[in-house]
Amino acid sequence: MPVPTADVPERNRGAPNSAVEGSERAGSMAGHQLQHSVEGDRQQAGAAMAVRASEPAAYRYSLDRYIDTGNIVVLETGHAERVRRSPTRRIAMVLVDASAEVRLSAVVMTHPSRRRAAEALRDRHPDLNLTIVEDPEPAGPPSALRTARLAWGAVTPDATHHLVVQDDMELVEGIAGLARQAAVAMPDQILSLFSEWGSRTAHAVRLGAIEGVSWVPVIDPYIPTAALLVPAQVARDLAKFPADDSAPDDVVLLEYVREHNLVAYVSIPNLAEHTGSQSLVGNDTFWGPRHAALYAGRLDTVPALDSTVSQQTLVPHLLVWDGFSLALVRDAYVDPTRSQWSAIPTFLYLAERGVTVPDLLAWFGEATADLFKDGEVRTLVGDSVVFQSWVNHLAYGVAAAEVLPDLATLTERMSDPVVIEGMRTLVPGMYQRFLPVPSTLRLRDIMDDFIRGAIQVGFTVPAQLAARAALAAEPS
Questions:
Q1: Same domain, 80 and 113
Q2: Same domain, yes or no, for 134 and 225?
Q3: Contact 276, 289 (CB under 8 A)
Q4: Which residues contact 312 (CB under 8 A, 6 or more apart)?
Q5: pLDDT digits (tens, 9 = 90+) for 362-387
Q6: Of the residues 26, 110, 150, 384, which has the maximum number of CB atoms within 10 A of its CB?
Q7: Which conformational region is residue 174 in: left (phi greater than 0), alpha (psi within -120 to 50 degrees), or beta?
Q8: Does residue 1 sit within a domain?
Q9: Domain check: are 166 and 261 in the same one?
Q10: How many domains does the chain have?
Q11: Residues 158 and 278 in one domain
């Protein structure tokens, strides 16, 4: 059972713009996992060596490779080192004892009319030993919760963790090993392995990829349940958690998270993808196509999942209902390891920091000079929506400036395959409800440089504002 770390104030639950729980710093000390973090360069790394001298000999470690490069190094007893690039020059040493045993049980939940899809998913991943759980009232009103309760409760007696997958998901090759890796890295947490490409959390996932971490907190008014990994006791609790039978399972999970003062996380990359089958509860009509924000199955190499959690305090996103950019801002309170998120229009967030509307309009004019030259964009989407997209990704750059040291590092991170995949789904996810898929894909190709340029400009905004303030403070 996850251990609450602080009392969390009551929220406006379920409202589209309600504040939701934010992130807590990485690193559970449960079981055999040990984590030590040090910030800085050689001097602090030397201090870390002194700390490490007291560790058991079974835990191997080496500092020489990342003192100068700022890598995050994850070492497993009896296994080769796995190195994950950190752009922040933070030295985060995470030791994982390979003897820490994860016993995984796994189920696929389905409706009798889609049993063949569930069987195909089971057969594609024999290493998961998936059990099929069917809707107990197939003729009743559509309800994911009805089946989810049975799926959550189907955890095996000896399991430490339980994986629940919906029948319309595609899972990355090697999912059993990756799920165990996730459980070792985040043993006490509720972990979603899928984030829908237009959701608020999808933007956090893309920013987390730029940051170079494995996990971001869920910031939607629901917890994605399409591919869910939870501690075994949490699964048993969820099966009995009181809720109205008409409530969606992902909202019920959010209520559970809030009641127990927990945080749910999404993996970077996502380990599951939605196959596009017809939703039994109407999600296709409401939302349009619902693909993953950053699916590992489209990467040549799947990066290791470690315990690094995003330190983002700003997540700009385009509201899928009206195409308007909104900034979610993390507000720290009482216990610094816990937080909540509040919403503000992105242009107002920028205005509070000194970016005027004339600034935005001037920068936008410069940015669109080439984009609008041949007129094609304007046949696909209106200028006002393009402007909101540009403001949104200008704020992406402002957010990235909080966690990356310089523009050169941002440029390097933007060429990382994980970041590229996240950017590939950005435009289709933003416009999923407004445009047909072929139009979103064409816009993606046309607007890629435009959006990347907005991020780069946004990264320089804090420095520009500081220079402007210094100039204004000089005696006239």
A1: no
A2: yes
A3: yes
A4: 23, 204, 207, 208, 211, 216, 330, 399, 402, 403
A5: 999 999 998 998 889 999 988 999 99
A6: 110
A7: left
A8: no
A9: yes
A10: 3
A11: yes
Q: Given the structure tokens 């399991």, which residue do they identify?
A: 159
Sheet holding 104-110, edge to edge: 131-134, 104-110, 161-166, 227-231, 190-192, 264-267, 215-217
Query: Does 248 reside within a domain?
Result: yes
Q: Which of 298, 323, 344 is the last residue of a domain?
A: 298
Q: SS3 for 454?
A: helix
Question: pTM of this prediction?
Answer: 0.78
Under the banding of pLDDT at 50, 70 and 90, the label for residue 287 is: low
In sequence order, what E strands does 161-295 have? 161-166, 169-171, 190-192, 215-217, 227-231, 264-267, 272-274
Q: Output the six-digit token pair for 11.
A: 């929220």
* Tokens 């289709």, residue located: 428
The answer to whether residues 199 and 142 belong to one domain is yes
DSSP assignment of 210-224 equals HHT-SEEE--SSS--
Tokens of 148: 């989810």
Q: What is the pLDDT of residues 307-347, one digit of tens each?
A: 999 999 999 999 887 889 999 999 865 444 455 889 999 99
User: Quick one: 185 and 324 in the same domain?
Assistant: no
Neighbours of 62 (CB within 10 A): 12
Residue 90 · residue 70 · CB < 8 Å: yes
pLDDT per residue over 294-307, tens digit each? 999 999 999 999 99
Residues 460, 353: Cα–Cα separation, whole Å: 13
CATH code of residue 234: 3.90.550.10
The helix (run of H) or strand (run of E) holding residue 359 is: helix 357-371
Using CB atoms within 10 Å of the CB of residue 460, give its burial: 0 to 12 exposed, 13 to 18 middle, 19+ buried: middle
| Structural domain for 67, as ranges | 34-96
Give the domain-ending residue among 96, 119, 150: 96
Is 296 exposed, middle or buried (CB count within 10 Å of its CB: 0-12, 13-18, 19+)?
buried
**Opening angle at CA 451, ends 172 and 308, nearest 5:** 45
User: And the tokens for 256?
Assistant: 């559970």
Please check whether residue 14 lies inside any domain of the structure: no
CA distance 266 to 277: 22
